[in-house]
Amino acid sequence: MIHARNLVKTFTRNEKKNKKVEFNAVDGISFEVGEGEIVGILGPNGAGKTTLLRMLSKLMKPTAGGVSITVNGEEITDDIEIKRHIGYLSGNTKLYGRLSARELLTMIGTICKMPDEEIEKRIEEISQLLDMEKFIDNRIEKLSTGQTQRASIARCLIHSPEIYIFDEPTLGLDIISSAAIIEFMKGEREKGKTVLYSTHYMEEAEYLCDRIIMLHKGKIICDLTPEDLKKQTGTDSIRDAFNTLIRQEDMGNES
Amino acid sequence: MNRKWNQKVIKTLFKKEMLDVLRDKKTVIMMLVVPVILYPLIFVVALQVVASVATSMETHTYNIVVDCPDDGRLMSYLEAYETSETTEDLTQETSELSSEEGLSDDNASNYSLKLIDKKDIQDYTAALQKEEIDVYVTAEMKDGKMNYIMYYLSSAANSGYAVDIVGEVISVLQKDLTKQEIEAAGLEVSDILEPVSFEYKNIASNEQSMGSVLGMVVPFMLIISLLMGTMYPAIDTTAGERERGTLETVLTLPVTNRQLITSKFLTVALIGIISALLNILSIGGIGLYMFKVMDLGAAAGVGAGIRLASFVPAILITIVVVLVFSLFISAITMCITAFAKSYKEANNYITPLMLVVLFTGYIGFLPNIELTRGMALVPVANICLLIKNLMLFKLDYTLIFLVLVSNVFYAALAILFLSKIYDSESILFGEGKTGLQLFEKRSNMKKGGVPTTGDAWFVIMLAIVLIVYLGGILQLKYGIFGVFGTQMIILLVPLLMAIYTKKDLRKTYSFHKTGILSFLGGILLIIGTLFVGILVSAVMSMIFPESAGAVTDAFDGIMDNGVWISLLVIAITPAICEEMMFRGYIYSAMKNRYKTVTAILIVAAVFGVYHMSIVKFLTTGLLGGMLCYAVYATGSIFPSMLMHCLNNMISVLVYYYPNEIGKVLPFLASETLTLGDLLIISGGGVLLMAAGILILNRVRKNRIAKETAGENIAKEAAGEN
Predict the structure, then answer these.
(1) Mean pLDDT over residues A176-195, rounded?
(2) What is the pLDDT of residues B126-178, one digit of tens each?
(3) B631 and B593 both lie in a single domain
């Protein structure tokens, strides 16, 4: 389970002349994601999705507010300890091209305090699951895009995290690769893991998510199940609901 | 447990970094191929070249024309060279005295002379110029003595060699004649020619002689090889990681920044040490080989009977020093490369660092610079000096301790700084705006705006380098017009850069209209600044009495060209060129990024440094700051141009018309001023400055009020639409 409490992230942007403009990329966000739940974060570009997910996975420090996780009924607030229980994947988390997948996974396992025998066992398990046996000892730079993607997922899995945070994991992937990721997320939900992910693909979110959180200009504008969301906006699809909500927000800001 | 865990994490990360770096071809090439293959290869090629040059020397024949109709003596001496194979035999035949010196050295046996009949040569200068002949000798009677004149062409190497040979032949002739005279008078030759004798005895041990040679070579070699060795791993683990996008991956791991940096730092330092050791081994091996095979040691008077054991303490301490120094170099290099987002950018950043490190290392080689407690704290130079001392068997343990501690301290500081960088999200995730635009694709550059600070620093560096080298040559050759050329450098470097990077020139150079009040305020401010400057420069001349004289000397040289040219070159040109660079290009870049006060201070400091004189630093800095304030207040560069022109004009006029100026403002032309005078003058100066600043501040307020009003009108107009 992951808790976000009133998260704020302020950036300064140099605008023309001497003016340094401060703005809140994330502006007071609170929510929880429970075990066995998949929550999708939707929002237009610049809404603060990536910043929010980076703060949740402890890559960035929030300007205000806090993050904590609950694992086996125990609340954890320490940054390093939180990282140990999170599997984070984004378009920016590339792999070390000059290492093999096995070397990379062993390193991460060691750093996550796993005993050596367990790491070996886990690597076997994952490579079977993701069908990586053929290329697990090759250098990552020599792998195909699909193979690299699988190695990336393996990287998030190796330390058996309780919580997955994915930033646009299916962006730019073909149908087969993205289907594999979607299936993977569904499988982890069955195992009672917590999954939080951002996407631009509305249909995917509608199919997969238990709850949808929409962000706009750093604020949550809705936090509902897909059904409730459609009902509330009176639309048939999440896509329409999204457009309606964003339009409402923009009009509300102007008047 | 916790510490153990911490070590395990660092060890794991370190292992990963090492694997990653060692599998990179570039690093391995730098580390292995250069010292192990390239150095010996260069050495072999160099040997070949030397050998081939030596052979060509041996077979060389020099063409000599002797045109001395009344004197056959020289001819007969030279003819001896023409036939003989080696000159040594000849000198022994002709003279016992001369054989001990001059002609008996190694070069002398590598040539033969060819005497050409003077009838074949009509015009000896033309023949010399065409290098058909190498020396033309003629003779005339002068004060009852025969005077030989040798014509040669100093720009041709062969002619230079040949004239030396002929000169030596003549001196042999001279000595033989002297000998004959002395013998004819019935005296003992050696008593007359050598009434006293002397010899040199070197009391330095062989080891010391060897050490002094090593002390010159080893430190520089170490610095360069460490720098080269750490460069690529430093770039790879910092900028390279960002470029490949693995930084965010590693940040998701449950590791602290300290652990991350420590592992990276250890990797860079280790690779640096390995490559430095390989370099030393390789060059050392080549050196030993040369000693043995070519017997150079014997020739140089060192090498024979050297007990290597005596170098052991020095070598052991050197190894410790190298270890510590590699920590320092690694940390510094990483600090620089951590700012870069890509390999290319990191390479750009590292070049100035290399120059600074090499230059500081060079301090260690200047004569008269000794390792003192103060010098022990100067990074890089302290290492050079320490190793030099070690090689000369000067072991001062306090100094060794100080050098080691200061290096560890600097390395620690650099690591602290590095962890600050890795804490800074704006550097890790940010886009960065300070980068140098010059290296971007021109088509990617946005039109308009003002220069970045990266551009500004680049322009400052480039301009200073050009001024020192190109400007120096221009001024030496063309005097006052060279000064004009220097000003053109100052004008053109930023201007071309601004055009190339598609900047808004009007904005960059603050070419804006301004009212009469701005100029009035500027004039008051600059006269006030000039008065205060008199006090400041008086104080500075007291602190640095020697440099004060040098400044006036240089000034006099320029002033010798008449008042009008002096005014043009010293007052008007700098007012335009220097203002456009400092208050235009640099100020606009700085104020876009920093607060106004910081921007003005930077411009003032750069302006002070640019004048390259400690004595003048404060006065020019003050002047630069005030000129900059005028630009800030009026929003226009024209008042500061006028102010600068006025300031320089006054010095020119004081030089040319000291009496006239003395009548109006006696203290400007006066050589000696009492403390009371100085205080009164600078007091008046402060008042004038205050008045000027008040006026300029009013200009500024009016301008801002006008601008906001203008903006409001524009907004209203937009609102109505």
Answers:
(1) 88
(2) 888 888 888 998 888 888 888 888 999 988 888 888 888 889 889 988 888 88
(3) yes
User: Which of A81, A92, A116, A119 has the most B C-beta neighbours within 10 Å, making it the best mutation to test the interface with B?
Assistant: A92
- Is B434 among the domain residues? no
Cβ–Cβ contact B8 with A under 8 A: yes
Cα separation, B689 vs B393, whole angstroms: 60
Count of CB contacts below 8 A, A vs B?
A: 76
Of residues A152 and B392, more confidence is placed in A152
Largest Cα separation within chain A, whole Å, is: 63
- pLDDT at position B439 is 56
**Co-location of B91 and B144 in the same domain:** yes
> Chain B 428-447, CB below 8 Å of chain A: which residues?
429, 433
Instruction: Give SS3 for A185.
Output: helix
Residue B651 half-sphere exposure toward CB, CA atoms < 13 A: 21
**pLDDT of amino acid A246:** 86
3-state secondary structure of B367: coil
Q: For chain A, where are the alpha helices, taking DSSP H only? A: 49-56, 79-84, 101-111, 116-129, 145-157, 175-190, 202-208, 226-233, 238-254
Decide if pLDDT at B83 tops 60. Answer: no
Residue A61 has pLDDT above 80, yes or no: yes
Residue in B with minimal Cα distance to A166: B252
* Dihedral over Cα of B306, B312, B317, B319: its sign: positive
Give this complex's ipTM. Answer: 0.88
Q: Tokens 């610095």 correspond to what residue?
A: B223
Measured distance CA(B314)–CA(B329) in Å, rounded: 21
User: pLDDT tens digits for B381-408?
Assistant: 888 888 888 888 888 888 899 999 999 9
In this structure, the answer to whether residues B214 and B180 fall within a common structural domain is no
Give me chain B's average pLDDT, please: 80
B140 with B240, same domain: the answer is no
Contacts of B23 in chain A (CB under 8 A): 98-99, 139
Assess whether pLDDT exceeds 60 at residue B249: yes
Pairing verdict, β B111-116 and B60-67: parallel
The domain tally of chain B equals 3
Asked whether the whole model's pTM tops 0.90, one would answer no
- Mean per-residue pLDDT, A144-157: 88
**Would you call B249 and A60 a contact, using CB atoms and an 8 Å cutoff?**
no
What residues in B contact A94, CB-CB < 8 Å?
A: 244-246, 248-249
- Looking at the fold, whether B567 and B469 belong to one and the same domain comes out as yes
Q: Which of A83, A97, A110 sits opposite B244 (nearest CB)?
A: A97
